[in-house]
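Predict the assembly for these two chains.
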Amino acid sequence: MIAALALPAVLTLVLAVLALAWGDAGLAPADIAAALSGDPVAGIVVGSLRAPRVATALLVGACLAVAGAITQAVMRNPLAEPGLLGINGGAGLGVTLLIVHLTGPIGRWLPVAGFAGAALAAGTIYALSWRGGMSSIRLILMGIGVSALTGAGIAFLTAFGDVREVQRAMGWMAGSLYGSDWARISWLVTWSAPALAATWLLARELDLLGFDDDCVQGLGLRLHLMRGVLILLCTLIAGAAVATAGPIAFIGLLAPHLARLSIKGGHVIRLPTAALYGALLLLAADLVARSLMLPAGILTPMIGVPFIGFLLRKQRDE
Amino acid sequence: MSEMTATARLEARSITVGYSNRDVLRDLTLSVPPGRFTALLGPNGSGKSTLLRALAGLARPSAGEVMLNAAAMRTMSRRQIARHLSLLPQTPRAPDDISVRDLVAQGRYPHRGLFKPWSSMDREICTRAMEMTAVADLEAKSLGHLSGGQRQRAWIAMTLAQSTDMLLLDEPTTYLDIAHQLDVLDLLRRLVRDEGKTVVAVLHDINHAARFADHLCLLKEGEIVASGPPGEIIQARHLRTVFSIDATIIHDPIDEVPICIARR
């Protein structure tokens, strides 16, 4: 168990040091140590440029991974990810609306618009699939429907919006960690940390969601309440992540699978493992993205798509 | 009879249960005999499974009341109910990669609080449940790799780990070969005789019910047509009313159990 966690942990650490050291102004590990002990130049490069970006990558990656684990459990579908709850579509629509339709200094409102859009879309999906109870399949169908709707909304706005503003909205929707700063990180932590802790406390309930409805209710689970609570937590976590970095696909799908492949046991151990893998994946993607001058969100599908192929192949073989 | 009702801990009092606009059970009253093995028999669509779900508190009656230990079930929380009765649905589903040990451990769910860690008592109860069902050797295996009979026993172990007095099972022998069917039924009978549990099971095979159960309930179109010990219930006229079959009843020369030979 420790060994299974050690690999991603060590890799994450190595990549984090690499991400702090590497850039236009290369820093030796000694310089990073100097930054920590107060050297002003190294301090600015590390402290206000690279460290926030690394911290954001780690946090957003972990959030997406945990949100993905929740979605896969609630929807009972190994191919589910937070995007199916309308999080990405809703956030995208909120941000596009803000950028294309409002003028003035809107930069700091971007996360708010993204978060509100995500919450609204997830809430709509939940409300539409409620029929005196909640079924996983109805949730998935509504998720697809509402995502299509938000996609149409975004397409409409971008088709008729001002080119420069549309360009900016599209840039946000590509998903990037560029321009991370400590203020945004503290905002992300405020929204996601309590939800992450609550999710971990509900690990046993997440385990039970993999069973059929009658069975878990027979075991004493308040199924509908628990689904609602977990969808809310997922919305908070994924919404905060997407609001911070834009929609970054595939981490929420991949990380829980990596956790499942590398470790046996319930969500109590799987959730932290998935979070670790999510952090690692996004950090790696962002490092490559920085070297190619691309947004990280464009790179994650490049890892994600082959992995889905691998999963489907594995399922077929079983 | 009056004494029986006084000690009965699970009963349905003139319940009507339906889905959307169709009533599946109509004004049905049933007192489950405690410490006995009760089998629910009836043709497809007669409401057996619905009755079982109603007794488990999963199907809400639109009229009448299900009483558990003299308290109305609708006033109880799911967790409270789960501490008194466990339910095994007809085709229970769990993730395929879950190990038998982890599956059985889920049975402890209603007894554990948010911050209450896994205790040695929880472990002992799970071990005992696996021993009783003879799956202890398989505890590290994943559910997906078990045979049908082993899987069913693992599920029963999970319901046993729930430490309830009452066990409700929906067609626990479906999809099993004859030897495994007898295994499961024998296990249920032992749970009743040796552990003092109350078992209610939906069964399809009349002869199995007659051989293993202490009490039979025949259902037709949402009503109980007859109930009592197998010797009284397995009669040609009852079987004609309920299943519309012509049957001859003979008796097993070895242990006097009625055997139904269906002719048409």
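Residues 1-8 of chain B have pLDDT under 50 and may be disordered. DSSP finds ten helices and twelve strands in chain B.
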